[in-house]
Design a protein that fits this description.
The chain is mainly alpha-helical and 151 residues long. It is 64% helix and 7% strand.
Length: 151
């Protein structure tokens, strides 16, 4: 594929990534009731936790595809695949380890409420996709570095 076409397709992918993030964003629970209902109280009442929505993984996929289109790196496919696999798993574990798992706050009556937050699956997928893209790039770099170091 010619370079100008790659740049055009990558630009289109970046626009689609932006549109996905903007228009397919997540949501939060909506609580109708007396004034002063807090976020924690709303999550406790509805069970709906804030989420990033489908825009994040689709945007991440388009972003990684655009980067890989501009820098395809067809050499060392085994190392690149290994890097992508390790990156995706490491990114998923890092997200699970570092995410906020509970939220504590006051209710409108002054009581302290703690709610458990569910795993945000679209956010987990988005992080894994981004980490896989980084692993793909680093896998090719690591192979080149090891070959140069051994020479």
């Amino acid at each position: 594929m010619p370079t100008s076409r790659r740049i055009a397709v990558a630009a289109l992918l970046l626009v689609l990534a932006g549109l996905a993030v903007v228009f397919l964003g997540g949501g939060v629970g909506s609580c109708l009731g007396p004034l002063g209902v807090t976020t924690v109280q709303c999550i406790h009442a509805t069970g709906i936790t804030p989420a990033v929505g489908l825009g994040a993984p689709l945007g991440a996929l388009a972003l990684v595809a655009a980067i890989l289109l501009l820098r395809p790196g067809t050499a060392n496919p085994r190392w690149r695949f290994a890097g992508a696999s390790i990156g995706a798993v490491a990114g998923a574990f890092a997200y699970l380890a570092l995410r906020q798992s509970s939220m504590t706050g006051a209710s409108s009556t002054g009581d302290v409420i703690t709610v458990t937050l569910l795993v945000d699956s679209p956010a987990l997928v988005a992080v894994a996709i981004l980490a896989a893209g980084a692993g793909w790039l680093l896998g090719g770099w690591a192979r080149s570095f090891l070959v140069a170091a051994s020479a």
